[in-house]
Amino acid sequence: MVLLGTYVLLLIGISRKAYKFLIPHIFFCFSTIFVLIIDTYIEILRTAGTRDAVESYQIIFIANNLFVIIMDLYLLIISWRTFTYICDFNMALSLEIPPQSSRYNEVIKLKTLLP
């Protein structure tokens, strides 16, 4: 449920170009990667000295965890690049020079017409 919520916030943040909606997804990716790395490490240490270290279910479990870690890293990289793109986009909007008033443009035209 939390994963779906962070994906929804990610999509809302991308569509509205609001970086604050991306932060929960990035945090969730970090925490998931951390937990999976710890879980995989503990599982490797637990099965290292036993006879079932070469059993297929142990190898599949570790390979599955490594696959999920790689996919989460990929999602984290995409989320981070999206976050920097949105921050750069918002910065460019805030640095944009506002258009001059129409009265100012009329004065400039009159000055150029005068000899």
Automatic annotation (TrEMBL):
Name of the protein in question: G_PROTEIN_RECEP_F1_2 domain-containing protein
UniProt keyword annotations, A-Z: Membrane, Transmembrane, Transmembrane helix
Transmembrane segments: 21-44, 56-77
Superkingdom, taxonomy of origin: Eukaryota
UniProt key word Transmembrane helix: yes
